[in-house]
Design brief:
Length: 211
């Protein structure tokens, strides 16, 4: 199955997030993903790998802030993918099944856009602080929001049966072997530093993870 239609639906959903049209596109794309899962399960392993191959998808993260890299990592893990990035470059990559990468890219675009918007409001609240204090406060806010998203993703994956089958179905078997065969040797980055921020935690819990 080609993913052109699913890709266009996810792109439409990301471009029109928080609108009825965008939500309808996301729902239809998830239904197609679910139907695709069922069809794949009926194929022999060789044909299944051919129908849903591994790929590397380069991404522009929308900025060079550390929280964007961490958000990409959280989304990738939730969608059974692997994420990589160059610190400070504002660029990253997703590795995984084509179907998984489609969901991960869509989810990252929507969540990063929501968090960027929330960050702008938080910046106004911190306008009376010094530039150094404001920068630290924004980092704590965004990192705490990503932590909330990470916790919610873990809760979704733990559900039996999961409500978001298209997001959490395991498709990653063999991914690391494929990456090594293609010369992708990733180095793990140290944890990003931040202090817990209650307002960021609350904002992160309010973002949509399904639609």
């Amino acid at each position: 199955m080609r993913f052109d239609r699913i890709r266009k639906l996810f792109a439409l959903a990301a471009d029109q997030a928080d609108t009825p049209e965008g939500e309808a596109a996301a729902r239809f794309a998830r239904k197609l993903m679910h139907d695709h899962d069922l069809k794949l399960s009926e194929l022999p392993p060789a044909q299944r790998n051919e129908a849903d191959p591994f790929e590397r998808r380069p991404l522009l993260l929308g900025g060079s802030e550390q929280w964007r890299c961490r958000l990409l990592s959280v989304v990738a893990r939730h969608c059974e993918c692997v994420a990589s990035w160059r610190p400070g470059a504002g660029r990253g990559s997703l590795y995984g099944r084509s179907s998984s990468v489609e969901v991960a890219e869509y989810l990252y675009v929507v969540l990063s856009r929501d968090l960027t918007r929330a960050r702008a409001f938080r910046m106004m609240e911190l306008r009376d602080l010094t530039p150094e204090q404001r920068s630290a406060g924004l980092n704590d806010f965004c990192q705490s929001a990503v932590l909330a998203i990470e916790v919610r993703c873990a809760e979704l994956r733990a559900e039996e049966p999961p409500d978001c089958t298209a997001l959490v179905r395991t498709r990653a078997k063999g991914l690391w072997n494929w990456m090594q065969d293609n010369g992708q040797d990733l180095r793990k980055e140290p944890p990003f530093g931040y202090s817990f921020d209650q307002s960021g935690w609350k904002v992160g819990h309010g973002f949509k993870l399904v639609e």
